[in-house]
Amino acid sequence: MLRSAAAAAMFGPLFKATEGPVSAQQTVNRNSAPSTLKITDMRACRVAANYDYPLIKIYTNQGVYGLGEVRDAGVEGIALILKAHLVGKNPLNIEQNLRMIRQFSNHGRMGGGFSAVDMALHDIAGKVYNVPAWRLIGNKNHDRIRIYADTTSHWDPKMYAERMRKRKEMGLTFFKMDLQSSILSERKELTGVLNERGVCTEKGLGYLCEYIAAIRDVIGPGTPLAADHFGPLNVNDSIRYAKAFEPYQLSWAEDLLQIGERNQYPYLNWQAYKTISDATTTPVNTGEDIFGLEGGFKELLDHRAVDVIHPDIETSGGLLETKRIADHAELCGVRVAMHHAGSPIGGFAGYHTVATMGNQFLAMENHALDMPWWQDLVTGLPKPIIEKGYVKVPDDRPGLGLELNDAVIKEHLRRPGYFEPTPHFDDVLVSGFRTGGPWPHYDENGKWCNCVSYE
Ligand SMILES: [Mg+2]
Questions:
Q1: Closest by alpha carbon to 79, among 343, 367, 318, 365?
Q2: What is the mean pLDDT of the chain?
Q3: I need a surface site. Which of 183, 191, 234, 312 has the fewest CB within 10 A?
């Protein structure tokens, strides 16, 4: 008995002190027979919100389903074209399934289908194994996820600061401001502040910094503050801006570079970003439109071309890929903030992922703080979802830990149809190399066989 009790203390659920040891296999949840689980369908709807939220459901032959979200302001078709490649597959083979569809992904909104599928597969796997989604990709290192607030700009620095004060009153502890150079053009009394490219002159930069100063006065000198959306800057413009911001100790300047020089995506131009970040103490950040580690974030990280990366889980590749990206960032000494402008589905996919990150994590965005029904889109979680600037990571519900609030979503559909059948996506619509045949040929008797027909 003593031996048995000691074993129970050491190994927990593998042994029961009163009944003697049981095999590990008996403790696995077999309720949904994982080995015979198959994907049967994928359907979608689209919520009309601050940006549209395309939502998907992946169905299985055993009633378990998974939820996913395509990148905000995208469309559900980028996920539905993957349906024919997934139907019939075991959803628990997450890496194999994702490897197969990776060829249909790219940066920006083109990463949305892959990312939505990843979320839905982790939701299914969590439900099948009865664990929260974070458990599938790592340990929970954060119980609460810090949220940062995006804030709309105003041409009057005092009014802008007042908007930020309201964010502070909501309990948020990390702030971001949009700082468009073009905001100065709304102030007719100002002259000589923008050049012919719409970029601030030195005089204009002085006025732009007044907005940061006004907001600093409201939130305090030590409170994290980031800035974004500066305008059509090239490398030299970016350096001038970043150096002008140095006295204000920003947490980061985001997507400074808007002019692609070596390829079509400025955010992949690590050489340009390294030139910028080497020239300033203002932390430089990019990445909300980058898909994947390889071919995406890796070179920025390996060359330490930025101080902060900013994946959006609805583009970067979902839970598994974003965890890989964040782990690589940690190795390279680069911090990780998370962009997010979607629904709570993608939000919680992000919170589960961030929970497994280390100290490289800074904060995750919420772009819907002024949308009263954002959190009503889902059920099953404590409300408010964001409390005093943080979201609690679910640990008592399987998968992503939430369900859709059908009634609220149906009130806010962009177009008619709520997870309607999608037979028009049953055929393979996108593909790499596919073997064809049968094809016209002579058979072994020399007889011509024209097999190219729909007989
Ligand atoms: Mg941004």
A1: 318
A2: 92
A3: 191
Q: Give CA 185 to chain center in angstroms.
A: 33
CATH 3.20.20.120 assigned to 136-405: yes
Rounded Cα gap, residues 385 and 349, in angstroms: 14
CA of 347 relative to ligand 1 center, distance in Å: 16
| Residue type present at position 133 | A
177 Cα–ligand 1 center, Å: 10
CA of 71 to the centre of ligand 1 (A): 14
Distance 228 CA to ligand 1 centre (A): 6
Q: What are the residue boundaries of the structural domains of the chain, listed by start?
A: 136-405
H helices present in 333-425, as ranges: 344-355, 406-411
Give tens-digit pLDDT for 328-343.
Answer: 999 999 999 999 999 9
CA of 229 to the centre of ligand 1 (A): 7
* Residues with Cβ within 8 Å of residue 191, at least 6 apart in sequence: none
Measure CA 81 to chain center.
Answer: 20
Per the rule left: phi > 0, alpha: psi between -120 and 50, beta: everything else, 63 is left
Amino acid 176 reads K
Write the single-letter amino acid at 229.
Answer: H
Report how far ligand 1's centroid is from the alpha carbon of 57 (Å). Answer: 28
pLDDT band at residue 194 under the 50/70/90 scheme: very high
Give me ligand 1 centre to Cα 9, in Å. 50
Distance CA 283, CA 185 (A): 27
Task: Reply yes or no on whether the pLDDT at 12 is more than 80.
Answer: no
- Tell me the three-class secondary structure of 202-262, residue by residue: HHHHHHHHHHHHHHHHHHCCCCCEEEECCCCECHHHHHHHHHHHHHHCCCEEECCECCCCC
Q: How far apart are CA 343 and CA 349, in angstroms?
A: 10
